[in-house]
């Protein structure tokens, strides 16, 4: 549970710092920090991917997983969930959805929901939590903690202390994935865990590339690649 705990703590500390100590952050600082974090995430992802010993299986998993994910369209489902959560709480989508926006200060509930959606519905939360539970490797969640902390700092300055309370769903959501993966770890061989983690690390690198490129036509819909993580499990279990 170390990874989820550190992630939640980073959100709380940075959100409170933003709410009480910082009144506004120039866009240029947000942009350069985002690029620096993106480069770091790419490094973490590539480093983990190189641990694979079955490169062909990794490629097959990525191709097969992308087809499955695109058919289900996980990315669209996650976006719909975010819109549903906002609608149920009676709030319109934030006018300044990007960190550093110039809209007026948001209410407690808006800050809480907006931050919770951003921190919990990303692919990095799922992949990082699986790595923490299966391997005891917290690098991805530590990198996510830095990213979430930077976003919390900016959101806290514009939306208030409600952002800090988003640490609770972050802890429950990611902690649940960690505990669930630990429960099934005894049924996985070291080879399966290694190959699943290698595929997951490649998805982490894709998230980093998205941070470097920004939103647009070149953006990788990483959520639609999540099924690729589980293909090595199925393949190696059958082969064994």
Task: Describe, in plain words, how this protein is organized in 3D.
- The chain has about 240 residues and is an all-alpha fold.
- The chain has one domain (about 1-240).
- About 70% of the residues lie in helices and about 0% in strands.
- The two termini are about 30 Å apart.
- Residues about 95-105 have low confidence and may be disordered.
Q: In whole angstroms, how far apart are the ends?
A: 31 Å
Whole-number average pLDDT? 78
Assembly state (oligomeric)? single chain
What best-fitting shape do the alpha-carbon axes yield? globular
Low-confidence segments: 93-106
Return Rg in Å: 18 Å
Number of DSSP helical runs: 10
Helices and strands, with pairings:
Elements: H1 2-20, H2 27-49, H3 55-72, H4 74-88, H5 108-120, H6 123-135, H7 139-159, H8 167-184, H9 190-213, H10 231-239
Helix pairs in contact: 1-7, 1-8, 2-7, 2-9, 5-7, 6-7, 6-8, 6-9, 9-10
Q: Which short descriptors sum up this protein?
A:
mainly alpha; globular; 10 helices; 240 residues
